[in-house]
## 1
Amino acid sequence: MTRPEQRETERRHIEEFLRLAGITATSFDQPDPPDAILTIDGRRVAVEHCELFERDLAENRSNVLALEGLLTKELKASGLCLLVGIGANAASPAFRRLRTVERLAKRLAALALAHKDDTPFRPGIPWIEAQGFPEIVMISVQRSDEPLAIVSPSFWGPGTESIGDAVMRKEAKLGRYRALVDDAWLLLVTGVNWTQATDSVITSGLQVESGFDAVYLLDLRESVVQTLKRSCLRPE
């Protein structure tokens, strides 16, 4: 993402946060740093924007996505018209290397072919694990008009871990603009894509300690704002 694209993303997320939180800003500037300076209730408020992400999911992303094409290729080579659905544990070390994923695709194709006469075939997790697929949480095999694989990444986020790391990283920037504003807020964003597994359900009721005057979580998956540290401007 280019810097202008990043700035546009920051502005879009901050505007959505303001809308969902019911906050009116009479001015909106992007001096960089901070990511934005707003005027709210006559006070200048710095907003630092941070998208949450799970490092292992980000590192595995390309190989998790590659599994779908690799498995479809193996199914086509078999000449059988099967639709194979896979739920992948996207944080698994198995997705660190493409070569490992290529071998996984071959094994999954062989499993699907072995159960071509059992369709629809949907074994439970204990069966899947017993077959030596710890990186897979769901398998579905059924007849289809053409060979096709569909892979759905699966992961339940750690919640407070990614939030705590983000707060610490962003607090290092506070000294740069404290003299420019009356208050400093941190806006954490999640739910943009599946590598952002932390959500407002996991973090329900969470409160954080921070040098920021307020910390908010914008969950775009659920279209909600959660207050992790309350601002004196928003006491209720």
## 2
Amino acid sequence: MPALSPENVLLSLIVVAPGFIAVYTAIIFGGLKESLSDGRLLGASIAAAFIIDPLFFWGYTLFGGEIADPTAAVGLFFEGGFRPERVLILTLLSVGVGISGAVAVSGDFTYIAREALQRQFDVNSHPHQPWEGSLKTANLVRVLTTESWFQGYIAEWSESGNERQITLDYPAEWDGENWSEMGLAKMIFFEEDIKQIHVVNEVNHGGSRAHPAGDGGDEEDDDGSDSQ
């Protein structure tokens, strides 16, 4: 089969294209903001194709088909004429693998698996920067700014490597004696204003959703001397 024959081009598309579909599906549904280099994108696509293509061809052989050589792999899309339903099945399989990848990314399954292995082997390490790792499970937090202490439920925070920003739901401000409600739904803090962050409780350690003005107790020292 010549290097630039139509069969060779089609085979390349059949092998590689499903991987690209799966990777882009994972990026879109997983909400990934990180820009992938061409090399990493190609590597991820080839890895995904090594999952998708064997599944597709295995399913084809289960229903009585036979693939003896690469030409047969191309030919199964043109048996008795063009077979768009088989292209659709391959595309849907690619999207399904991509959505599975998006679920794994969104649920941070690698982080969960790593924690399980660390507990098994009695080790403790974290691949993320403290900014990302500490806020991952945070629920109620206190933020010391250049002006005052603020407390609220963490809603969003920037990714590691970007300018540090954090958003609190229903923020309250420390007035020297108590936490005072501010009457705001959200409050955004920017890196130049943040001096320190305390995690009061975590979502997987009994963190409640009572109003932050009445949660977390008194601020023992509003100059930051009670830092962890």
## 3
Amino acid sequence: MKHLVKKLSTLFIVAVLAVTMLLPTTANAQERTIKYKQNLVLSKENTFASNLLFPEKIKSCTSTNKNILNPDMVVLDEKSVAIYTNKAGKTELSFVGKSGKIYTINLTVVKYSNPVSKFKINSKNYASKFKKSSMPALTSSGKQKISIKAKKGWKVVDLHYTFYNYSGKIKTKKFKNNRSVNISKKYSGFIDATLKNKKTNAITILTLCTGPQF
């Protein structure tokens, strides 16, 4: 009975984390979103939303190509908007702000490819985990050295570690490549690595989930 309760509790925590990560959170929106751009290229993601940050609250969003952007996966949260890019192609997005101003984005979604040859946590390389998914998981915790090497044509532009304490408190810390980060042994979280393709300007956000349940 105790084993069953523990298993159900773990599944609940994982579900909560998954929903929390999908929805853009105001507290850490500045850290984990892509600022508004008229022309934006994103790598197609199968497991995670790409968050866009605007200078004001967004009231609505429309897309000229709904085959590229699933309208059911556009989540508005104050100035942050989560979009789920599930197919490659092009579309024009129009966001209406609280002031009535319309923000237009020419969005190009390209096929996802693993942008890293090395994603090391201490001595273990997790790069192969990003072959098909941009959001794998690991069980490492404590003080860990993060070393990332981009593949040819890519560059690392941003690194963050975020964790939740299940009471609504969120902490986000920006860190430099080849530096140590204290990964919580108690709370769920994730390491975000934002990479950009030098030729196409495509942006990919790799998310490595951390925490005791993983």
## 4
Amino acid sequence: MKRFSVSALALAFALLLAACAKEPQVSKSGSDQPVQSASVSAPDAPAEPVESVRARLSELHAEWQNWPELAEREGYVLCSGRPVNQDGVERFLASYQAGEPASLTVLSYGSTIPMVYQIDFDGQGAMCATICKGEGQFEEAESAGVYSRATDYVFEGFGLVVPKEEEAERSELDAAPGEQLLAGGISPERAVQIARQANERLYAYRSAGDGAGFGARGVVIPDSIPEDPGPRADGIALDYRPAGGERLGERPCYRVETYREGEGDAYYDVLLVDARDGSLVWTIEMVNGSAVPIYDADQTYITCPAA
């Protein structure tokens, strides 16, 4: 009988220990909340095969006429015409800046051929993009950063521009050449100076062989180009003249025209300068008359810690 009692007690004690082992741990701080164990990262998931990525992008490209609907339904970023799901870009860039893995699918069409961008960031180094330009037409590219301007995001190295706002319509302001547009804004003389500086820096950048082609919407003048780049490589000296004003969307702007000697009254370039503070400059495309941003005094460069 005594032997049975000891065995029973031993069994009960073992059961008690097993039950205690299943109870959640209690923090030493006295809190009733259980201590959370450190999360263990799962093994890295295998990268999606290149063939699979390209097949998926080809399917999206084939549907390009339905992209507005796809963007609304699937959450893709549409960056032409009107920006759709721009918050997706902002979330991606926040992760990129924090060094956290993220992906972004962008559908782009408009003045260029339709293109699909699959942008991936693994938490270190550069962003990588697979770009589909049509059936069987793919490019791979890398980018170390994104320029954030008042009007758009420019993904360096991808040739990708995601607008922050709809493309603004141009309308003429009733203002004579050299007339002050805003009482608290910059003077027309200052606007001409800013237009000259931005345009000559842009020319110097493109002439160096590193810039985007003429008419490209994603050109950003790097800080390495001096404020006074000196004489143009083509030997042309432009005359910059105030030519009244325009309204670009809600922004009143000075219109500045450039002229070359011996060409009469035909202007060469048209630039618009934000009349409020001169912080933004656009050049006007000769083909379709749209305004292309070329200068933003307050632009920022977004990169990741490990880039």
